[in-house]
């Protein structure tokens, strides 16, 4: 067996691994339950919906309107204006005047030393909340009319202390279409979801900071966002805190009950991916491993097949690499349908992964230099 054939089987393995994991995980990465029994129970619960907002004048009005459209259960809506430099607070006050005492605006305090802005805002919101369930939402999340009840019903069904939903990721610009869908590819392609649900190991932490629901008692018992006060990546770090305290966490597909457009242009996409990459893949423990995994799965199959054909490698080698190319596109093709993603982005999957890895290495070298990417006016 020659070297190129051995290499080809290696590429096939790397491409087939996330394809197999994606299919396996997708079968149990379900939407929030709509079972009548859990929905009835959920309708009897009370929820504090908590939105941290800094310079969110473009998003906050629509976020409030979509929350207020949920009329099937009792909730309060708390918004913390985190020293916004735009009209965020004024828009919230307008909605309060138009709506009712259901909405409360919390004025910000100077950010304490050692705290990240979002984590401090979330902690203050939780301290001000009145009800037993805490639903943290980013200001760019848009809920459907039954979303809150469905989320609570899913938490009751799964019986976990922290539940995180992944909304439909809306994309407009080319950069968004190319990079944002990688969230689902990496999540379902490399996370052992069955093991996550059968264990409270912190190493299996996963979540989406756009939408997180916690039982108030569990949240306070493990110190919630205060325990991750310096972090920029609550999607990973908050579930990790819960798990360190022996508490269960879970994730679900919120595509049908919520939508979110995180970024509006290429610059925001790049900075958004850079700002917390060192808490995800771009660290000393994972950067090399994920570079091999992602490059082998998405970048190398096609050029390897071209080289094999042009150098007249054996039929077996060419067949193996052709299978690797097919496998590399399987999860992206499925995701297009399951999560309403762009076909163009799926076709350009190798370019998207190459760009993503470039950003991860850039973030890694910035972290080695002690540099942090500024986000919303804060370093």
Outline the structure in words.
The protein is α/β, with parallel strands linked by helices and 379 residues long. The protein folds into 2 domains: 3-25 and 282-368, no CATH class; 28-262, Spore Coat Polysaccharide Biosynthesis Protein SpsA, Chain A (Alpha-Beta Complex). Helices cover 52% and strands 14% of the residues. It contains 17 helices and 8 strands. Strands 3-2-1-4-7-6-8-5 form an 8-stranded mixed sheet, sandwiched between helices. Strand 2, helix 4 (88-98) and strand 3 (103-107) form a beta-alpha-beta unit. The termini are far apart. The relative contact order is 0.16. The mean pLDDT is 94.
Helices and strands in order:
Elements lengths: L2 H24 L9 H8 L2 E8 L6 H9 L5 E8 L6 H11 L4 E5 L9 H12 L4 E5 L3 E3 L3 H12 L3 E8 L4 H6 L2 H9 L2 H6 L12 E5 H6 L12 H11 L4 E12 L5 H10 L11 H13 L1 H10 L4 H24 L4 H5 L1 H20 L11
Parallel strand pairs: 1-2, 1-4, 2-3, 6-8
Antiparallel strand pairs: 4-7, 5-8, 6-7
Helix pairs in contact: 1-8, 1-13, 1-15, 2-6, 3-4, 12-17, 13-17, 14-15
Name its key features:
2 domains; 17 helices; alpha/beta; single chain; 379 residues; Spore Coat Polysaccharide Biosynthesis Protein SpsA, Chain A; 8-stranded mixed beta sheet; globular
What order do the helices and strands follow? Answer: HHEHEHEHEEHEHHHEHHEHHHHHH
How many domains, in number, for the residues? Answer: 2
What best-fitting shape do the alpha-carbon axes yield?
Answer: globular
Provide the gyration radius in Å: 22 Å
| CATH topology tier name of the largest domain | Spore Coat Polysaccharide Biosynthesis Protein SpsA, Chain A
* CATH class wording of the largest domain: Alpha Beta
Mean pLDDT metric: 94
Are there runs of 5+ residues with pLDDT below 50, and where? Answer: none
The structure class reads alpha/beta
Strand adjacency order, main sheet: 3-2-1-4-7-6-8-5
Q: What name goes with the CATH superfamily of the largest domain? A: Spore Coat Polysaccharide Biosynthesis Protein SpsA, Chain A
Largest sheet: 8 strands, mixed
> How many DSSP E strands?
8
* Strand fraction: 5-15%
- State the end-to-end distance: 53 Å
The CATH level-2 architecture of the largest domain is identified as Alpha-Beta Complex
With helices defined by DSSP (H or I, 4 residues minimum), what is the helix count?
Answer: 17
Helix proportion of residues, in percent? 40-55%
């Amino acid at each position: 067996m020659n070297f190129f054939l051995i290499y080809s089987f290696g590429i096939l393995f790397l491409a087939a691994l996330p394809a197999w994991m994606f299919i396996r995980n997708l079968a149990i990465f379900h939407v929030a339950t709509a079972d009548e029994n859990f929905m009835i129970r959920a309708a009897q619960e009370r929820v504090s919906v908590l939105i941290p907002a800094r310079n969110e004048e473009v998003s906050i009005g629509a976020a409030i309107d979509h929350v207020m459209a949920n009329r099937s259960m009792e909730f309060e809506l708390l918004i913390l204006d985190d020293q916004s430099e735009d009209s965020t607070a004024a828009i919230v006050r307008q909605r309060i005047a138009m709506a009712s005492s259901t909405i409360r605006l919390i004025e910000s305090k100077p950010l304490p030393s050692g705290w990240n802005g979002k984590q401090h805002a979330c902690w203050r919101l939780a301290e001000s909340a009145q009800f037993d369930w805490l639903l943290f939402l980013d200001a760019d999340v848009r809920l459907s009319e039954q979303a809150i009840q469905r989320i609570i019903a899913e938490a009751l069904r799964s019986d976990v202390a922290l539940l995180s939903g992944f909304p439909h990721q809306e994309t407009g610009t080319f950069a968004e279409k190319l990079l944002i869908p990688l969230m689902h590819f990496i999540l379902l392609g490399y996370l052992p979801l069955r093991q996550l649900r059968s264990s409270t190991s912190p190493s299996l932490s996963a979540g989406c900071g756009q939408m997180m629901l916690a039982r108030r008692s569990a949240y306070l018992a493990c110190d919630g966002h205060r325990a991750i006060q310096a972090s920029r990546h609550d999607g990973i770090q908050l579930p990790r805190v819960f798990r360190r305290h022996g508490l269960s966490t879970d994730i679900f597909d919120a595509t049908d009950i919520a939508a979110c457009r995180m970024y509006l242009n290429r610059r925001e996409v790049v900075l958004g991916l850079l700002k917390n990459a060192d808490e995800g893949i771009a660290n000393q423990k994972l950067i090399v491993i994920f570079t091999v995994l992602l490059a082998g799965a998405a970048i190398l199959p096609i050029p390897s097949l071209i080289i094999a054909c042009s150098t007249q490698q054996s039929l077996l080698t060419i067949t193996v690499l052709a299978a690797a190319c097919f496998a590399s596109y399987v999860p992206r093709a499925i995701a297009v349908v399951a999560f309403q993603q762009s076909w163009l982005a799926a076709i350009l999957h190798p370019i998207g992964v190459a760009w993503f890895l470039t950003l991860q290495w850039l973030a890694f070298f910035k972290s080695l230099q002690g540099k942090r990417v500024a986000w919303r006016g804060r370093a």
